[in-house]
Amino acid sequence: MKVLVVGSGGREHALAWKIKQNPQLEQLYCAPGNAGTAQLAQNVPIDVEDIDGLLDFVVSQQIDLTVVGPEGPLVAGIVDRFQQQGLRAAGPSREASRLEGSKAFAKDFMKRHAIPTSGYQVFDQFETAETTLKHDAFQFPVVLKADGLAAGKGVFICPDLATSLEALDCIMQERKFGASGDRLVIEEFLEGEETSFMVFSDGVNTLPMVPSQDHKAIYEGDQGPNTGGMGAYSIDAILSEELRRKVLDEIIYPTIKGMAEEGNPYQGILYAGLMMTREGPKVLEFNVRFGDPETQVILPRMESDLLDLLYAMAEGNLENLDIRWNQNAAVCVVLAAKGYPGSYEKGQEISGLDMAGEDENTIAFHAGTTLKNGKTVTNGGRVLGITSVAPTLQPAIMRAYEGVNKIHFEGMYCRRDIASKGLKRN
Ligand code: AMP
Ligand code: GLY
User: Fold this and answer.
1) In angstroms, rounded to a whole number, what is the distance separating the alpha carbons of residues 216 and 147?
2) Is the residue at 324 inside a domain?
3) Ligand 1 within 6 A of 122 CB?
4) Residue 235 confidence (pLDDT)
5) In what order do the strands lie in the sheet with 42-43?
6) Displacement of CA 12 from its chain's centroid (Å)
7) Total domain count for the chain?
8) Are 295 and 231 in contact (CB under 8 A)?
9) Contact present, 129 and 168 (Cβ < 8 Å)
Protein backbone atom coordinates (compact mmCIF):
# COMPACT_ATOMS: atom_id res chain seq x y z
CA MET A 1 0.00 0.00 0.00
CA LYS A 2 1.13 3.55 -0.78
CA VAL A 3 0.28 6.20 1.78
CA LEU A 4 0.56 9.99 1.95
CA VAL A 5 0.53 11.83 5.27
CA VAL A 6 -0.38 15.52 4.92
CA GLY A 7 1.21 17.90 7.43
CA SER A 8 4.54 18.82 8.98
CA GLY A 9 4.11 18.77 12.75
CA GLY A 10 4.90 16.43 15.62
CA ARG A 11 1.53 14.80 15.07
CA GLU A 12 2.46 13.91 11.49
CA HIS A 13 5.86 12.53 12.53
CA ALA A 14 4.06 10.32 15.07
CA LEU A 15 1.51 9.23 12.43
CA ALA A 16 4.30 8.38 9.99
CA TRP A 17 6.21 6.47 12.70
CA LYS A 18 3.19 4.32 13.52
CA ILE A 19 2.00 3.82 9.92
CA LYS A 20 5.51 2.69 9.02
CA GLN A 21 5.02 -0.36 11.26
CA ASN A 22 2.41 -1.84 8.89
CA PRO A 23 3.92 -4.79 6.99
CA GLN A 24 1.83 -4.08 3.86
CA LEU A 25 3.21 -0.58 3.49
CA GLU A 26 5.13 -0.20 0.22
CA GLN A 27 5.82 3.50 0.18
CA LEU A 28 5.23 6.35 2.58
CA TYR A 29 5.18 10.02 1.58
CA CYS A 30 4.78 13.10 3.72
CA ALA A 31 3.75 16.54 2.42
CA PRO A 32 5.57 18.67 3.27
CA GLY A 33 6.94 16.82 6.33
CA ASN A 34 9.91 17.77 8.51
CA ALA A 35 13.41 16.48 9.26
CA GLY A 36 11.89 13.65 11.35
CA THR A 37 9.48 12.39 8.72
CA ALA A 38 12.38 12.51 6.23
CA GLN A 39 13.90 9.56 8.10
CA LEU A 40 10.75 7.45 7.60
CA ALA A 41 9.09 8.75 4.48
CA GLN A 42 9.80 10.59 1.28
CA ASN A 43 9.02 14.24 1.93
CA VAL A 44 7.32 16.03 -0.96
CA PRO A 45 7.36 19.83 -1.03
CA ILE A 46 3.61 20.47 -1.37
CA ASP A 47 1.86 22.84 1.03
CA VAL A 48 -1.00 21.39 3.13
CA GLU A 49 -3.40 24.00 1.73
CA ASP A 50 -2.49 23.22 -1.91
CA ILE A 51 -5.31 20.74 -2.52
CA ASP A 52 -4.80 20.73 -6.31
CA GLY A 53 -1.10 19.99 -5.86
CA LEU A 54 -1.82 17.17 -3.41
CA LEU A 55 -4.48 15.75 -5.71
CA ASP A 56 -2.10 15.71 -8.69
CA PHE A 57 0.59 14.02 -6.62
CA VAL A 58 -1.77 11.33 -5.32
CA VAL A 59 -3.04 10.57 -8.82
CA SER A 60 0.45 10.45 -10.34
CA GLN A 61 1.87 8.20 -7.59
CA GLN A 62 -1.28 6.03 -7.34
CA ILE A 63 -1.54 6.54 -3.59
CA ASP A 64 -3.99 4.22 -1.86
CA LEU A 65 -4.70 6.31 1.22
CA THR A 66 -4.14 9.96 2.16
CA VAL A 67 -4.10 10.74 5.88
CA VAL A 68 -4.80 14.40 6.58
CA GLY A 69 -3.20 15.78 9.76
CA PRO A 70 -4.20 19.45 10.10
CA GLU A 71 -7.65 21.06 10.13
CA GLY A 72 -7.06 23.65 7.37
CA PRO A 73 -7.35 21.31 4.37
CA LEU A 74 -10.18 19.33 6.02
CA VAL A 75 -12.28 22.45 6.58
CA ALA A 76 -11.45 23.51 3.00
CA GLY A 77 -12.94 20.24 1.72
CA ILE A 78 -9.91 18.14 0.76
CA VAL A 79 -11.71 14.86 1.47
CA ASP A 80 -14.68 15.75 -0.77
CA ARG A 81 -12.32 16.76 -3.59
CA PHE A 82 -10.44 13.46 -3.28
CA GLN A 83 -13.64 11.42 -3.17
CA GLN A 84 -14.97 13.14 -6.29
CA GLN A 85 -11.89 11.76 -8.06
CA GLY A 86 -12.39 8.29 -6.59
CA LEU A 87 -9.47 8.71 -4.18
CA ARG A 88 -9.41 7.48 -0.61
CA ALA A 89 -8.69 10.03 2.12
CA ALA A 90 -9.01 9.55 5.88
CA GLY A 91 -10.85 12.50 7.41
CA PRO A 92 -14.30 14.11 7.59
CA SER A 93 -16.06 15.90 4.72
CA ARG A 94 -16.16 19.67 4.45
CA GLU A 95 -19.65 19.83 5.95
CA ALA A 96 -18.72 17.52 8.85
CA SER A 97 -15.51 19.51 9.44
CA ARG A 98 -17.64 22.50 10.47
CA LEU A 99 -17.58 20.98 13.95
CA GLU A 100 -14.12 22.54 14.15
CA GLY A 101 -14.34 25.11 11.38
CA SER A 102 -17.16 27.07 13.00
CA LYS A 103 -17.52 27.44 16.75
CA ALA A 104 -21.06 28.78 16.22
CA PHE A 105 -21.99 25.70 14.17
CA ALA A 106 -20.53 23.40 16.85
CA LYS A 107 -22.39 25.20 19.66
CA ASP A 108 -25.73 25.23 17.81
CA PHE A 109 -25.23 21.55 16.91
CA MET A 110 -24.61 20.66 20.57
CA LYS A 111 -27.70 22.59 21.59
CA ARG A 112 -29.85 20.77 19.03
CA HIS A 113 -28.65 17.42 20.34
CA ALA A 114 -28.52 18.23 24.07
CA ILE A 115 -24.76 17.60 24.25
CA PRO A 116 -23.34 19.14 27.44
CA THR A 117 -21.39 22.36 26.83
CA SER A 118 -21.25 25.86 28.33
CA GLY A 119 -24.05 28.40 27.79
CA TYR A 120 -23.36 30.78 24.88
CA GLN A 121 -24.57 33.41 22.47
CA VAL A 122 -23.53 34.00 18.86
CA PHE A 123 -23.06 37.52 17.44
CA ASP A 124 -22.76 38.71 13.85
CA GLN A 125 -22.57 42.39 14.75
CA PHE A 126 -19.88 44.13 16.78
CA GLU A 127 -22.39 46.65 18.20
CA THR A 128 -24.79 44.01 19.48
CA ALA A 129 -21.98 42.08 21.15
CA GLU A 130 -20.66 45.28 22.74
CA THR A 131 -24.08 46.30 24.06
CA THR A 132 -24.74 42.82 25.44
CA LEU A 133 -21.37 42.71 27.22
CA LYS A 134 -21.88 46.21 28.67
CA HIS A 135 -25.33 45.42 29.97
CA ASP A 136 -24.23 42.68 32.30
CA ALA A 137 -25.84 39.90 30.30
CA PHE A 138 -22.87 37.71 31.23
CA GLN A 139 -21.16 36.80 34.44
CA PHE A 140 -17.40 37.30 34.40
CA PRO A 141 -15.10 35.65 33.56
CA VAL A 142 -16.49 35.13 30.06
CA VAL A 143 -14.87 33.45 27.08
CA LEU A 144 -14.82 35.14 23.66
CA LYS A 145 -14.10 33.04 20.58
CA ALA A 146 -13.60 33.99 16.96
CA ASP A 147 -15.96 31.79 14.98
CA GLY A 148 -13.55 30.27 12.45
CA LEU A 149 -10.09 28.72 12.48
CA ALA A 150 -7.45 30.72 14.32
CA ALA A 151 -4.67 28.20 15.04
CA GLY A 152 -5.81 27.91 18.65
CA LYS A 153 -5.29 31.65 19.20
CA GLY A 154 -8.81 33.02 18.71
CA VAL A 155 -9.98 32.25 22.26
CA PHE A 156 -9.89 34.88 25.02
CA ILE A 157 -10.67 34.26 28.66
CA CYS A 158 -11.77 37.63 30.01
CA PRO A 159 -11.90 38.28 33.76
CA ASP A 160 -13.83 41.56 33.44
CA LEU A 161 -15.69 43.92 31.13
CA ALA A 162 -12.59 45.86 30.05
CA THR A 163 -10.68 42.78 28.87
CA SER A 164 -13.77 41.40 27.15
CA LEU A 165 -14.20 44.66 25.21
CA GLU A 166 -10.53 44.52 24.20
CA ALA A 167 -10.95 40.94 22.98
CA LEU A 168 -14.11 41.90 21.11
CA ASP A 169 -12.21 44.72 19.42
CA CYS A 170 -9.35 42.43 18.49
CA ILE A 171 -11.64 39.81 16.93
CA MET A 172 -14.36 41.92 15.24
CA GLN A 173 -12.80 45.36 14.64
CA GLU A 174 -9.06 44.82 14.19
CA ARG A 175 -9.96 41.48 12.61
CA LYS A 176 -6.82 39.84 13.86
CA PHE A 177 -8.13 36.46 12.68
CA GLY A 178 -9.47 37.73 9.36
CA ALA A 179 -12.82 36.34 8.25
CA SER A 180 -12.93 34.21 11.43
CA GLY A 181 -13.97 37.47 13.10
CA ASP A 182 -17.19 37.79 11.05
CA ARG A 183 -18.89 36.06 13.91
CA LEU A 184 -18.24 35.75 17.58
CA VAL A 185 -19.22 33.25 20.23
CA ILE A 186 -19.42 34.47 23.81
CA GLU A 187 -19.64 31.66 26.30
CA GLU A 188 -19.78 30.86 29.96
CA PHE A 189 -16.44 30.10 31.63
CA LEU A 190 -16.09 26.51 32.81
CA GLU A 191 -13.93 25.35 35.69
CA GLY A 192 -12.23 22.01 36.03
CA GLU A 193 -9.50 19.83 34.55
CA GLU A 194 -9.24 19.54 30.79
CA THR A 195 -9.16 16.15 29.08
CA SER A 196 -8.65 15.24 25.45
CA PHE A 197 -10.68 12.32 24.15
CA MET A 198 -10.44 11.05 20.58
CA VAL A 199 -12.30 8.39 18.63
CA PHE A 200 -12.18 6.84 15.19
CA SER A 201 -15.58 7.02 13.49
CA ASP A 202 -16.73 5.57 10.17
CA GLY A 203 -19.95 7.58 10.27
CA VAL A 204 -21.82 4.99 12.32
CA ASN A 205 -19.40 2.97 14.45
CA THR A 206 -16.89 4.48 16.83
CA LEU A 207 -13.68 3.15 18.35
CA PRO A 208 -12.41 5.18 21.30
CA MET A 209 -8.77 5.95 21.99
CA VAL A 210 -7.18 6.19 25.42
CA PRO A 211 -7.54 9.59 27.16
CA SER A 212 -4.81 12.21 27.34
CA GLN A 213 -4.17 15.65 28.75
CA ASP A 214 -2.57 18.59 26.97
CA HIS A 215 -0.74 21.54 28.57
CA LYS A 216 -1.80 24.58 26.57
CA ALA A 217 -0.27 27.46 28.51
CA ILE A 218 3.32 28.49 27.81
CA TYR A 219 4.49 28.65 31.45
CA GLU A 220 4.61 26.19 34.30
CA GLY A 221 1.53 25.97 36.48
CA ASP A 222 -0.61 26.68 33.38
CA GLN A 223 0.32 30.36 33.38
CA GLY A 224 0.69 32.72 30.45
CA PRO A 225 -0.76 32.74 26.97
CA ASN A 226 -2.07 29.64 25.21
CA THR A 227 0.08 27.78 22.72
CA GLY A 228 -0.60 24.92 20.35
CA GLY A 229 0.32 22.63 23.28
CA MET A 230 3.52 22.42 25.37
CA GLY A 231 3.29 18.74 26.23
CA ALA A 232 0.89 15.92 26.97
CA TYR A 233 0.60 12.63 28.78
CA SER A 234 -1.64 9.61 28.58
CA ILE A 235 -2.61 7.21 31.34
CA ASP A 236 -5.93 5.43 31.69
CA ALA A 237 -6.52 7.07 35.08
CA ILE A 238 -7.25 10.40 33.36
CA LEU A 239 -10.81 9.08 32.91
CA SER A 240 -12.43 6.65 35.31
CA GLU A 241 -14.48 3.89 33.71
CA GLU A 242 -17.64 5.68 34.84
CA LEU A 243 -16.61 9.03 33.32
CA ARG A 244 -15.46 7.36 30.13
CA ARG A 245 -18.91 5.79 29.76
CA LYS A 246 -20.51 9.17 30.39
CA VAL A 247 -18.35 10.86 27.75
CA LEU A 248 -19.25 8.18 25.22
CA ASP A 249 -22.98 8.12 26.04
CA GLU A 250 -23.56 11.86 26.50
CA ILE A 251 -21.06 13.34 24.07
CA ILE A 252 -19.46 11.05 21.49
CA TYR A 253 -22.38 8.82 20.46
CA PRO A 254 -24.91 11.70 20.28
CA THR A 255 -22.43 13.66 18.14
CA ILE A 256 -21.91 10.83 15.65
CA LYS A 257 -25.63 10.06 15.57
CA GLY A 258 -26.62 13.72 15.31
CA MET A 259 -24.25 14.38 12.41
CA ALA A 260 -25.65 11.35 10.56
CA GLU A 261 -29.25 12.45 11.23
CA GLU A 262 -28.47 15.90 9.86
CA GLY A 263 -27.14 14.39 6.65
CA ASN A 264 -23.45 14.98 7.43
CA PRO A 265 -22.15 11.60 8.59
CA TYR A 266 -18.94 12.04 10.52
CA GLN A 267 -16.23 9.83 9.06
CA GLY A 268 -12.86 10.62 10.59
CA ILE A 269 -11.06 11.23 13.85
CA LEU A 270 -13.25 13.15 16.28
CA TYR A 271 -11.45 14.95 19.07
CA ALA A 272 -13.50 16.22 22.00
CA GLY A 273 -11.76 18.80 24.19
CA LEU A 274 -13.54 18.34 27.51
CA MET A 275 -13.80 20.23 30.76
CA MET A 276 -14.47 17.89 33.66
CA THR A 277 -16.78 20.18 35.63
CA ARG A 278 -18.56 19.46 38.89
CA GLU A 279 -21.68 18.86 36.84
CA GLY A 280 -19.88 16.34 34.66
CA PRO A 281 -17.93 16.45 31.40
CA LYS A 282 -18.71 19.33 29.04
CA VAL A 283 -17.38 20.03 25.56
CA LEU A 284 -14.98 22.98 25.20
CA GLU A 285 -14.34 22.34 21.54
CA PHE A 286 -14.41 19.73 18.84
CA ASN A 287 -11.47 19.11 16.55
CA VAL A 288 -11.93 17.11 13.38
CA ARG A 289 -8.47 15.49 13.46
CA PHE A 290 -5.81 14.03 15.70
CA GLY A 291 -4.66 16.37 18.48
CA ASP A 292 -1.13 17.69 18.63
CA PRO A 293 0.71 16.85 20.95
CA GLU A 294 -1.89 14.28 22.14
CA THR A 295 -1.17 11.97 19.19
CA GLN A 296 2.48 11.71 20.25
CA VAL A 297 1.41 10.09 23.56
CA ILE A 298 -1.54 8.06 22.26
CA LEU A 299 0.18 6.21 19.43
CA PRO A 300 3.00 4.72 21.57
CA ARG A 301 0.22 3.11 23.62
CA MET A 302 -1.55 1.63 20.59
CA GLU A 303 -0.79 -2.05 20.01
CA SER A 304 -3.10 -2.37 17.00
CA ASP A 305 -2.12 -1.40 13.50
CA LEU A 306 -2.89 2.26 12.81
CA LEU A 307 -2.89 2.02 9.03
CA ASP A 308 -5.46 -0.79 9.08
CA LEU A 309 -7.69 1.34 11.31
CA LEU A 310 -7.37 4.45 9.15
CA TYR A 311 -8.03 2.47 5.99
CA ALA A 312 -11.10 0.80 7.50
CA MET A 313 -12.33 4.17 8.77
CA ALA A 314 -12.04 5.70 5.30
CA GLU A 315 -13.86 2.67 3.84
CA GLY A 316 -16.66 2.88 6.42
CA ASN A 317 -15.69 -0.50 7.86
CA LEU A 318 -14.92 -0.12 11.54
CA GLU A 319 -17.76 -2.38 12.63
CA ASN A 320 -15.80 -5.52 13.38
CA LEU A 321 -12.57 -3.93 14.54
CA ASP A 322 -11.28 -3.14 17.97
CA ILE A 323 -8.16 -1.42 19.26
CA ARG A 324 -5.66 -2.97 21.66
CA TRP A 325 -3.74 -0.66 23.98
CA ASN A 326 -0.81 -1.23 26.31
CA GLN A 327 -0.97 -0.08 29.92
CA ASN A 328 2.11 2.11 29.69
CA ALA A 329 2.20 5.76 30.66
CA ALA A 330 3.37 8.06 27.86
CA VAL A 331 4.72 11.60 28.27
CA CYS A 332 5.62 14.15 25.58
CA VAL A 333 7.57 17.30 26.44
CA VAL A 334 7.55 19.97 23.74
CA LEU A 335 10.75 21.91 23.10
CA ALA A 336 9.93 25.35 21.75
CA ALA A 337 11.89 28.16 20.15
CA LYS A 338 12.63 31.26 22.21
CA GLY A 339 9.76 33.74 21.87
CA TYR A 340 7.06 31.17 21.01
CA PRO A 341 4.01 31.59 20.96
CA GLY A 342 5.03 35.10 19.88
CA SER A 343 7.62 35.67 17.15
CA TYR A 344 10.71 33.47 17.11
CA GLU A 345 13.78 32.78 15.03
CA LYS A 346 14.33 29.81 12.77
CA GLY A 347 17.48 28.07 11.58
CA GLN A 348 19.12 27.25 14.94
CA GLU A 349 21.18 24.06 14.77
CA ILE A 350 19.86 21.22 16.95
CA SER A 351 22.32 18.92 18.70
CA GLY A 352 21.87 15.77 20.78
CA LEU A 353 19.12 14.10 18.73
CA ASP A 354 21.17 10.88 18.38
CA MET A 355 21.77 10.71 22.11
CA ALA A 356 18.11 11.33 22.94
CA GLY A 357 17.13 8.46 20.66
CA GLU A 358 19.52 5.97 22.31
CA ASP A 359 16.96 5.01 24.95
CA GLU A 360 14.57 2.56 23.27
CA ASN A 361 11.73 3.96 25.38
CA THR A 362 12.20 7.51 24.09
CA ILE A 363 11.37 8.97 20.69
CA ALA A 364 12.19 12.49 19.58
CA PHE A 365 9.21 13.44 17.43
CA HIS A 366 10.11 16.35 15.19
CA ALA A 367 7.76 19.29 14.63
CA GLY A 368 9.32 22.55 13.39
CA THR A 369 12.58 21.09 12.05
CA THR A 370 14.19 20.95 8.64
CA LEU A 371 17.45 19.80 7.08
CA LYS A 372 19.95 22.43 6.00
CA ASN A 373 23.36 21.46 4.62
CA GLY A 374 23.03 18.04 6.22
CA LYS A 375 22.19 19.50 9.64
CA THR A 376 18.90 19.48 11.51
CA VAL A 377 17.82 23.04 12.27
CA THR A 378 14.77 24.66 13.88
CA ASN A 379 11.99 25.67 11.50
CA GLY A 380 9.00 26.51 13.70
CA GLY A 381 7.77 27.53 17.14
CA ARG A 382 7.27 24.04 18.49
CA VAL A 383 10.45 22.27 17.47
CA LEU A 384 10.49 18.77 19.01
CA GLY A 385 8.32 16.57 21.24
CA ILE A 386 10.47 14.27 23.37
CA THR A 387 8.23 11.31 24.12
CA SER A 388 8.87 8.48 26.58
CA VAL A 389 6.98 5.46 27.79
CA ALA A 390 7.28 3.48 31.02
CA PRO A 391 5.00 1.17 33.00
CA THR A 392 3.96 4.06 35.26
CA LEU A 393 3.89 7.84 35.00
CA GLN A 394 6.78 8.88 37.26
CA PRO A 395 9.51 7.00 35.34
CA ALA A 396 7.95 8.06 32.02
CA ILE A 397 8.29 11.71 33.11
CA MET A 398 11.89 11.13 34.23
CA ARG A 399 12.81 9.44 30.95
CA ALA A 400 11.26 12.20 28.88
CA TYR A 401 13.25 14.87 30.74
CA GLU A 402 16.44 12.78 30.48
CA GLY A 403 15.86 12.91 26.73
CA VAL A 404 15.15 16.65 26.88
CA ASN A 405 18.40 17.27 28.76
CA LYS A 406 20.43 15.73 25.91
CA ILE A 407 19.02 18.13 23.32
CA HIS A 408 20.27 21.61 22.72
CA PHE A 409 19.51 24.52 20.44
CA GLU A 410 19.89 28.24 20.98
CA GLY A 411 16.95 29.63 23.01
CA MET A 412 15.39 26.19 23.64
CA TYR A 413 12.46 26.42 26.07
CA CYS A 414 10.26 23.77 27.67
CA ARG A 415 7.91 23.50 30.61
CA ARG A 416 9.42 21.45 33.43
CA ASP A 417 6.07 20.37 34.90
CA ILE A 418 4.58 18.32 32.06
CA ALA A 419 2.41 15.48 33.40
CA SER A 420 3.01 16.35 37.05
CA LYS A 421 -0.77 16.86 37.36
CA GLY A 422 -1.13 13.22 36.44
CA LEU A 423 0.87 12.04 39.46
CA LYS A 424 -2.05 13.05 41.70
CA ARG A 425 -4.28 10.67 39.83
CA ASN A 426 -2.40 7.51 40.69
P1 AMP B 1 -10.90 26.04 22.34
O2 AMP B 1 -10.02 26.29 21.13
O3 AMP B 1 -12.31 26.43 22.13
O4 AMP B 1 -10.73 24.69 22.92
O5 AMP B 1 -10.27 26.95 23.47
C6 AMP B 1 -8.88 26.90 23.78
C7 AMP B 1 -8.67 26.79 25.26
O8 AMP B 1 -9.33 27.86 25.95
C9 AMP B 1 -9.26 25.53 25.88
O10 AMP B 1 -8.41 24.44 25.76
C11 AMP B 1 -9.45 25.97 27.31
O12 AMP B 1 -8.23 25.94 28.01
C13 AMP B 1 -9.87 27.40 27.17
N14 AMP B 1 -11.35 27.51 27.10
C15 AMP B 1 -12.11 27.50 26.00
N16 AMP B 1 -13.42 27.60 26.30
C17 AMP B 1 -13.49 27.69 27.63
C18 AMP B 1 -14.58 27.80 28.56
N19 AMP B 1 -15.84 27.89 28.16
N20 AMP B 1 -14.27 27.84 29.88
C21 AMP B 1 -12.99 27.78 30.30
N22 AMP B 1 -11.94 27.67 29.47
C23 AMP B 1 -12.16 27.62 28.16
N1 GLY C 1 -3.79 19.90 21.45
C2 GLY C 1 -4.90 20.61 20.97
C3 GLY C 1 -5.15 20.51 19.54
O4 GLY C 1 -4.64 19.65 18.86
O5 GLY C 1 -5.92 21.32 19.03
Assistant:
1) 20
2) no
3) no
4) 98
5) 42-43, 27-32, 2-7, 65-68, 89-90
6) 11
7) 4
8) no
9) yes
Same-domain status, 311 and 203: yes
Closest by CA position to 253, among listed 301, 323, 206: 206
| Domain harbouring 180, CATH code | 3.30.1490.20
Rounded distance from Cα 286 to ligand 1 centre (Å): 11
**The last residue of a domain, from among 188, 220, 237:** 188
407 in a domain, yes or no?
yes
What value does the mean pLDDT take over residues 40-62? 98
Say yes or no: 307 and 198 in one domain: yes
Q: Which ligand is nearest to the CA of 157?
A: 1
Whether the pLDDT of residue 153 is over 80: the answer is no
Ligand 1 center to residue 160 CA distance, Å? 17
CA nearest neighbour of 329 among 247, 405, 206, 421? 421
Rounded to the nearest angstrom, the distance between the alpha carbon of 155 and the centre of ligand 1 is 7
Whether 143 is in the pocket of ligand 1, judged by its Cβ within 6 Å, is yes
- Ligand 2 atom with minimal separation from the 290 CA: 4
pTM: 0.96
Distance between Cα 278 and ligand 1 center (Å): 16
Q: What is the mean pLDDT of residues 61-82?
A: 97
| Smallest CA separation from ligand 2 atom 5, residue | 291
Percentage of the residues of the chain whose pLDDT score is greater than 90: 89
Q: In whole numbers, what is the pLDDT of the chain averaged over residues?
A: 95
Q: How many CA atoms lie within 13 A of 183 on its CB side?
A: 14
Domain boundary among 255, 286, 315: 315
Q: Which amino acid is it at 145?
A: K
Give the pLDDT of residue 426: 62
Q: Is residue 386 part of a domain?
A: yes
Residue 43 has pLDDT above 90, yes or no: yes
CATH number at residue 374: 3.90.600.10
Please tell me which residue, 305 or 154, carries the higher pLDDT value: 305
Supply the CATH number for residue 209's domain.
3.30.470.20
DSSP at 114: T
Q: Determine if ligand 2 sits within 6 Å of the CB of residue 287.
A: yes
| Spatial CB neighbours of 52, under 8 Å, sequence gap ≥ 6 | none
Give me the domain span that covers residue 61: 2-94
Is 162 contained in some domain? yes
The confidence score (pLDDT) of residue 177 equals 87
Given a cut of 80, is residue 374 above it in pLDDT?
Answer: yes
Judged by its nearest atom, the ligand closest to the C-alpha of residue 334 is 2
Rounded to the nearest whole angstrom, what is the distance from the C-alpha of residue 154 to the centroid of ligand 1?
Answer: 10
The minimum-distance atom of ligand 1 relative to the CA of 273 is 4
